[in-house]
Structures are given as C-alpha cells and as structure tokens.
Amino acid sequence: GMYLSSLPQALNGFVLVVTSEGLIFYSSHTIQDYLGFHQTDVMHQSVFELIHIEDQPEFRRNLHWALNPPHTPEDEPSTEGGKSLGSSAVIYKPDQLPPENSSFLERSFVCRFRCLLDNSSGFLALNLQGRLKFLHGQNKRSEDGSALPPQLALFAISTPLQPLSILQIRTKNMIFRTKHKLDFTPLACDAKGKIVLGYTEAELQMCGTGYQFIHAADTLYCAENHVRMMKTGESGLTVFRLLTKENCWKWVQANARLVYKNGKPEYIVVTQRPLVDEEGGEHLRKRSMHLPFTFATGEALLYQSAYPLLGFPDPFQSKGKTSKSKKTSCSHGGCSQKNGVDPSSLLGAVMQQDKAVY
C-alpha cells in the first residue's frame, strides 16, 4: 500500500510492480478483469511468462534505468521462473543511478500480454505508464551475504489500448475458478462458479473425475488439452460445454494450470469464463476444422481407459461385447464396473450422464 499511494487510482486498468530482474512484485486484483489471471497466479512469477515473445526485449529495455539492459544470450530461456533473469540482473548502487524524481525514469510503452479472456489472439495489447522507483523492504543479500541496496522496479498502470467490448464487460464479471485433482476430479469451486453452474461444492465432488459434467462431443478435445497441461503445465484456451444443475449446456472458455508444490504437480486450477452460445458455436466450427484428433492411444492410460478411444462406441448402447475389456481397479473402492467400463475413464464418465441431456 505504501508504494502504491503515489500511483493515480487505476480506473481503467491494473497496477503492476515488476522488479529489475522481471519478477512481478505486486499486481492489483483487477488484473483478472483484463487478463483473466488471478492476482495470486502472477505474484512472484516472471513477467516474461505473460508477455508476447516479440515484446519481451521491449519490456526488458524499459526495466533498465538507461533503457540499455546488459545483453542476455539469445539461447538463454527467459521464462525459467525468473531464475536465469536473476543471475543476469546487474546490481546498482544508488549513487550510480539518476535521482528518483528524474524524468529519465518515466516509462510509457506498449506490450502484448497473454489474455485468457480475449477470444481472438490470446493476447491483449497494454499501454504501461509509470516510472522506475526504488523498491524498498526487499532485504536481498548478495552472494557474500552482505545486504543489497534497494533496486529500481517498474511501477506502472497497465491499460488496454482498445476499450473492452460490451460483450467482454458483460461476461468478464462472471469469471469463475475451480480446483481439481490431477485426474480432474473437482475439489473446490468459487462462489461465482456455484452461481453459473448451480451446483454446491459437495455435488461437484461426489461425481467422479469431473468429465461427467462435460458434453460428450467435447470430452476428447478436453482430454487432449488435459494431457497437454500435464506435459507443459498449462492447457491453453479450451472452449467446451458444461452441464448445469438445470440440465442445460453452458459454453465456457477455460484455461487450466498445474500448481506445483516442492517441484511436484499437486493440483489443477481452472479459470473459466462463460460464453454466449454464438461464441461457443463459433469455436466449435473452428475446432472441427482441426479434426481428426491426435489423441494417441498411449495417453489413454492417463484416463485408465481400456477402450481404443478413437473408436468411441455409442455410450448408450452397451451390446454386451465389452466383457473382454480389462477390468481396471477403481480408485473409488466400491463403484461398479458396469460392462467392464472403468467409471473413471472418459467413456465411463459419459455413460454416467443422463441420456435426456442430449
């Protein structure tokens, strides 16, 4: 709060404070209205993970007091959670720098930031306006253990170049978040999610892997992005239909991220934005141009499916031919292996749905 009093109130935009080595020291919670990321998703992360690769050099330049940062080797990854950045950051003593009120330290520049809400390119161009100021209270130590002087950090208000469309403003306020186990079993849902979907948290938790809430025509596409998230840490934008408590299908645009603890994936957080049906239909048309799925049968192991998923038999006509499929042990203890279909497989999830919803 103390540092931010000098910044004008961000009426249209959000406040961002980025350290000299590119770590996000602070973001106002309104970042969620513009980029879809929650404040806690971005704090203490590398800002470069949010910035379009072509705009990263420009941002790096603006972090440097003389707009002339030390050269980083091209092949050095800048997104390693800020570790490689930290090592290349030069430590300056205050007497090597211009006075803090110098116009030399004012900043105004444009960068494209990754945006979970923007349904065109996945990026939103932001104008960052502010200045470099000393960031106190860091209490950082150098290699030899001596205290480091406060370093200049960028304090800026980030404003979209284009005004948000009416549609975005109407839907951005209903962004909701859910938390899942690694197999996607729901663990928690925030208040807005309960309003949008109509379920209580207990109702979401008692149903199995969570694929029961996904439209059959979207399950493979969601599973593919789930696999991508398990490999890369993030699903990328995924647009699909969720079953509400009223037995209606609701289109959402989601991005799932792995949350790690002690270097190991611990759970999944999904940020979801409801879409109007026209937007959902538009995504479905785009998606059908990318068929067939590249879902490899080996990855079906993640879903413990004994079926070749590409065959995807009609879930509602079990002709008794399924008895040959291997019975996989069911993690839920007493749940029945109807027709040898593992209830936690994709097919099992679809078979648990009520036929009437289609």
UniProtKB/TrEMBL annotation:
PROSITE patterns recorded: PAS
Residue ranges of every copy of the PAS domain listed in the record: 1-70
Taxonomy, superkingdom: Eukaryota
Disordered, as annotated region: 65-85, 318-337
CDD domains assigned to the protein according to its UniProt record, in alphabetical order: PAS
Single GO MF descriptor: transcription cis-regulatory region binding
The keyword Repeat appears for this protein: no
A Gene Ontology cellular-component term: nucleus
Keyword list, A-Z: Activator, DNA-binding, Nucleus, Transcription, Transcription regulation
GO biological process: xenobiotic metabolic process
Keyword DNA repair: no
Subcellular locations according to the entry: Nucleus
Primary localization class, coarse: nucleus
Xref: PANTHER family: ARYL HYDROCARBON RECEPTOR, ARYL HYDROCARBON RECEPTOR 1 BETA
Name of the protein described by the UniProt record: AHR protein
Taxonomic source organism: Cephalopterus ornatus (Amazonian umbrellabird)
